[in-house]
Specification:
134 residues, mainly alpha
């Protein structure tokens, strides 16, 4: 039951994080006319901060409060999200510049892959259960 709740919460906040990412991207690209790579980068930064806060508190129920532990979690989270960022940018470049797919469609497709990667890494590496708040 706990796993089902965790997965449902991850999906909910994954959808919200994806929404934050896509809305930021659309705002930057369509309204401010910023290049798609820079728009993707800025949207990624904003969505990573949102994802960390929501995943820590609501999905994986990490109760670490000591500065060192929170910083360690955030750094680990950001490093692994950096890997998914490379996936996001790589897919965007291939889908847009090589396959000539619309940038918003490409963004959505890339985010589907990224959400799957992020759940696996968050569950088994970043927010894995630890016994002591170090």
């Amino acid at each position: 039951m706990k796993n089902k709740k965790e997965i449902l919460m991850y999906l909910l906040f994954g959808i919200l994080t994806t929404g934050v990412n896509i809305l930021c991207y659309v705002f930057l690209k369509k309204f401010l006319n910023i290049d798609f790579i820079l728009s993707t980068t800025i949207a990624w930064i904003i969505s990573v901060i949102f994802a960390f806060l929501t995943n820590k508190k609501y999905v994986f129920n990490s109760n670490f409060t000591k500065a060192y532990s929170v910083i360690r979690e955030f750094c680990s989270f950001t490093i692994f999200r950096g890997i998914s960022f490379i996936t996001d940018i790589g897919m965007m470049i291939v889908l847009i510049e090589v396959m000539n797919i619309n940038d918003l469609t490409s963004k959505i497709l890339a985010n589907i892959v990224v959400v799957i990667i992020n759940y696996i890494v968050s569950k088994f590496v970043v927010f894995k259960v630890k016994r002591v708040d170090q």
